[in-house]
Each structure stands twice: as C-alpha cells, then as structure tokens.
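User: Round two. Same drill as before: sequence, then structure, for each protein.

Assistant: Same drill it is. First protein:
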Amino acid sequence: MNDRNIKLYCGGRFYFNCKVEGYLDQVANDYRTILLGDVSKLLHPKATYMINEHTEYLGPFYFYLESEKQVANDIVAIEKQMLEQCTDAIFILDKGDCAGTVAELIYSSTLHKRIHIFYVHLSDNEETESDLHSPNWYPIILSRQLSPQTKITACVSREEAERMAIEMIRAL
C-alpha cells in the first residue's frame, strides 16, 4: 500500500482541435481523458481530479474552448503553477515539434520533480545523434542531467507510450 500522495502533471501534445467537427471522439482517446474517465473533465476544468486514492491529477487541461478560452500568458502561468505544485510529471514525446511539452519537461527538471518520459524510439537509422533515436534526444538527456529522478522509457509508438504511461500512473 502506498502512503504518499502524488500530484500528477501529464504532459504531451493534444491531438485534437475543438474547431474540427467530430473532435469529441478524438478527445475521448486522449490519454488524459482515459485517466480522468470523462471528456468533460479535460475540456471544462473546475478543479483537480483524483485518479485513485493516492493520485491527484493537476493538469494540464484543454483551455481552447470558446466558452473558457484563455490567452497565451494565462495558459503558461496556469501550467507553470501546476508544474510547481506537482510531485510527478509524465511526458509523452513522439514528434520533434512539441515546444510546449519540451519547455514543461525542462522546467519540471529544474524543479527536480519525479519525471517519467515515454518517448517514441525511431529506427536505428533515424535521429542518429544519440542512442535514443528520437527528435527529442536533447531535452530528454538534458532532463536526465538536471534531475536524477528522471525515468526514460522507449516505446515503438505514441499509442504504446500512452498505454504504458496510463499503466504506470494507475499503479502509483
């Protein structure tokens, strides 16, 4: 039995856009929605949510709905505060063009949070600058250097990364 309380931040890009018809189906497949068990919790944040008796989900939430739209400075300030409050931060890294997620990863690393990175390992012929074979090799290595508690897990796809992250979170 776990006697510590975990405050969780689950980073990674959102693969949906509220301006596209049928986006609710995509929201339902987001790994954070699966953890929260309800699309409305990711789209209409009112508070933090308990994932289990020891794990509290702090964020992020999807702030782009017209009814609850936030300006960029507000989003950064809110998510920065969430990162400061969390005990553990999960990051799904699959593509190289995820500037927000990389910034969150590095910031949480400087705060020495417990970090869990699930990244997509490309073929050994791609991204050969490091043995990680990921377009995100630099921030992953930097995170590990800044925060020794960083755990890195290679995955074959984004779907596997999300599945493994969900399994790890549920086991906390």
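Second protein:
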Amino acid sequence: MMVQYCTRCKVIHNNNEICPHYVKQLKENPSLLAEAANFTVVAGQYHLVTSQTLDTLSQGVNKLAGLNLAYEGTHQFTRDIQVFRQLNVDSFSRSGYFSNAKSAQSYFLNGTENQQQNVLRKLNGTAQEIDWLRWKKGKLSSLLEKSKLLGEETSNAPGIDGTSVNRFVKNRIEKVTIKASVSDKGLGTNIKGVLKALEKGTLDPKDTFLGIEGSSEALAKALDHNLKKALDAGNTEYAKRLQQAKEYMKVKELNNYDRVKHSTARLENKIKSGQAAVQVTVNDVAKKACQGAIVGAAVSLTVSSISNYMKFKNGDITEEEAFVSIGKETLKGGVVGGAMGALTLFLPGGALGFAAGMAVGIYINAISSNVLDEIFGEGAYGKILDASGYVCGMTVNLESALQKIEQNEKHLAGNIRKAKKTAASVDEYFDEFDLIMKG
C-alpha cells in the first residue's frame, strides 16, 4: 500500500485515507464528491482512449479463461456498437430496423439496392459523428466541456449534428455540423451542403464544420467562389454570411477517404453477419470477456482518486498531475471490461456504458464505501452520485469471487460425500434391523 506525506496534516496518509482537511470540505459541500466523480470519469476515459491499457490487460482474461485468442480491439469494438446505436436512435428511430442485430441484418439483406446504399451512406456519416464524439471526450478540454450528438435528443436541429457545452454553467461553447465522404465527389457534396445550410440560415457562420482531410481547403475555395457569385447577383445577405463564414467558421478535419471506406466496409460486414449490436447486456459482456474482448464499462471511484481531486481543488497539485494520477488510479481500482478484474453485480440488464462516449458506471469498492459512509452518512454518497446521473454500485473482485465459488463447490462436494456416507450407514442399520426381525 502506497503512503504519502500530507503537508497539511504533517502526517503520512495511505491510499485509503482522506486528509481530515478534505473530509471537512466534503462534508460542508457534498457536490465536491460529484465533481470528483466527473473528474475521475473523464480522466479514466482519457487514459483508456489514449493508451493500450485494456488491450494489454485483456491478455489476463485469455489466461484466466485458458484461451489464446485474437480479439477485436477495445476501442473499435465499443466504437462500432456506438455507431449502430446512434443509427437506431437517429436515422432509424421510427422504423426500428436497427433496434437489434437480427433486425438490421434482415433489413439490409432483404432491402433494395437503394435501401442498401442509403444504409452505407448513413454508416459513413454516423461513424464520423461517433468518431467526433469520442475524440472530444478524449481531449483534456472535456474536463470543462460536455459534448453530445443531437440525433438522440431532437430532430429539430437541421444542419447541426453535435454540440459542446460548459459542464458547470451549461452555456453552449460550439455547434458542429459533421460530414464524411469516400471520394472527391462526396467531398464536393459535403461542401455544397455546408453552403446550402449557410444560405438557409440553419448553420451559423460562427459554427464548426468537421469533415475529412481536405475539407478546409475545399471549403475555403468554395466560399471565395460563391461569395463572388453572390455579390455579382446582388444577394448581399448571403454574401454577408459567406464573408462571416470565411472569417469565423472553424474547420476541423478527422479521418480520410481510406479510413471512411475501411470503417464502412467493416460495419457493413457486421450488419450482414448479424453482429450489428446496439447495446451490450451483462451476458454479452461475459461472453465477450471469455473471447478476449474487453468492454470498458465503468471506472472505480477510489479513495485515492477523491483525495487527488481534492488536492487539485485546493491547489496542492496541478490539474495535469491530478489528471494523470487519477487516470491511472481508475485502472488500479478496477476499470471493468467484461470480467476484467471485477464482476458487474449492479449494472442493469440493458445497455451498459462505454468508455469515451456513453454513460459510465461508478464502482465503489468496500473500502471506499466505508470511508464515504463515515463522511456523508450511510448510503448518502450513493444518492449524491445518483443525483449527478451516475449508476453507482459495489464491485466484487473476480479472483475472490472465483475462489468463493471454488470453496462452495468443495463444500458442496464434501456435503455430498457425507450424505452418501450417512445413506450407506442407514442402509447398514436397516440390514441389521431386518436380520433382528427375522431372527
């Protein structure tokens, strides 16, 4: 167990202790616990997205299961499910064709050529949207910003695919239109779409345009060309918007033709083979774990991560130091991926959260639970986290659980042996009784 000298108390604290000074602050302001949870989740997601930690740790699952299988990368696995889920809540929300893998498979295989091509176009754009969301959630700025896609929440945002807001004051930071393509023709169509949205007023000149590589140059040329045409035609209002777009519109590039093609081909194959899953159930996670695939479903809120956040909050360490420390600490506390280090005993049978993109569960181990109960009162910490939108629950170490199962099986086997021995003795007594009665 690691120990650390506390400059405030002038004593040494271990990882399972919180400085009394921070305890007092937590008691006086319980919202600090929710802030610590937010910080921990973001730090944990950042660490998962920017490292190969889960891919490395998954080797332990193979060893545990007695397997040596190749597996689909963690990030790709979760990302693809997020793409299918977004299709279900956005493009196919009314029809329900992507409500599950079998329905998606049937729709695609039995669809007309036009329907199939429409699905492929949707895959291009939706995958780009998910990649933007994952990219935003993996940035250090996500400590202050909260990004989301709009398809799940409203259909009344033509031209806008995603937004970012300040986590604390909720004011909007940016609106984003997101587009992808697999060819020069598609890129041209994207640019025309941006210009049309500017002309209609559904896209503000100060909004953000996220496209593939080459989008920035293509848009700049198109803005110059159409600005001249608008001025020549006397369309001053449109010309003004185009000029503002030249000055203020932020253009960001993500992916290229080849990456989009590769992504769409992989997603298409998953649909055809009945693997277009839109959610992961507890049973699915267990099955994937045995196959060596890892799903980052939750992070552990440890005493150490809370302490590190409080140190940052009090200016004892820098934001970067807290970010790095907590990011690593989430793994020590048991970032859950299928059977990776812990069993998900509290998560519902519906959709689980994924690292970097969806709701994330907060795991509280026994030590953390005891410490938080002492600070806030029994069970109060759960209500605090629940009010902040977190699914909160306890974890059980997988190794301990397996040992317990083994012990129970041995105990059961012993009882069976005793029962058989007792039964044999009873039979002997009956035999003796029969002899006595006959004699």
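The chain has a mean pLDDT of 75.

User: Perfect.
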